[in-house]
Automatic annotation (TrEMBL):
Name listed for the protein in its UniProt record: Methionine ABC transporter ATP-binding protein
Single annotated GO MF: ATP binding
Family: Belongs to the ABC transporter superfamily. Drug exporter-2 (TC 3.A.1.117) family.
Source organism per UniProt: Pantoea trifolii
Membrane-protein topology: Peripheral membrane protein
Domain annotation ABC transporter: ranges: 2-233
Intracellular or extracellular location(s): Cell inner membrane
Presence of keyword Hydrolase: no
Chief site of localization: membrane
UniProt keyword annotation of Membrane present: yes
Keyword annotations of the record: Amino-acid transport, ATP-binding, Cell membrane, Membrane, Nucleotide-binding, Translocase, Transport
Amino acid sequence: MIEIDNLSKHYRAPDGRITEVLKSISLQVPQANITAVVGPSGAGKSTLAKCISLLEQPSAGSIRVNGSDLSRLDGEALRQARRSIGTVFQSSALLQRKTAWENIALPLHYLGVVERDIAARVGELLDSVGLSHKAKAYPGQLSGGQRQRIGIARALALRPSVLLADEATSGLDPEATITVLDLLKKLRDDYKLAIVLITHEMDAVRQAADAVAEIRDGQIVQYGVVKELLAQP
Ligand code: ADP
Ligand code: ADP
């Protein structure tokens, strides 16, 4: 589970002026839950995503994953902590000259996992995203939806307990969007993942999210359980 507590982030311009981008955001995503984060452009979604993926340090507040605060780490501890959070972006950023199989294997290679275990793990991951038959395909030979599914498999290679999907279905056609969202729901259930789904697409929220938080101007202005929100007249 991921618990974001009073998270604030400001940037200081060279002239000393401070821009407050996130203002005391608190949000909890339990295991086996998809929580969508929505909001207009400029609301702070990307900044929140960078904090969650531990690419930016918050100015205040904490980000706890399964109880430990990961927001103030550096060096080796930070590298270790990053493994507990898988990330998939709008363009899955697969390496074009590597096959689907090799792309998924990359994080395991970096970690020095032995070849035999890598093979077993990559096989499992390809299976869990339904693309075993595309193991040898290069990204250019895959559809957008298939590339995202490979990106998701790679994000899960190190068995994170949290998955951050940052506009992961933006730019996909409706059919591919449904496939990717269905996959996220399956992974939520199979691996009990806490999934943070950052999106500007309300259809994605309706289809996949258990809860939704709306941010505006760096603050959560609305939070609710999707079933209850949709049940409102
Ligand atoms: P969203 O992803 O919801 O569109 P962002 O997180 O990209 O929002 O940006 C939120 C606000 O923070 C914007 O006003 C943006 O200009 C500002 N911002 C983002 N990054 C920086 C930065 N490095 N320095 C200063 N301001 C920033
Ligand atoms: P076990 O402890 O026997 O591995 P788990 O329920 O933890 O049982 O895992 C079952 C299967 O799901 C295993 O094949 C494991 O590799 C895979 N798995 C578990 N958690 C994750 C995760 N967060 N991301 C990807 N795969 C996972």
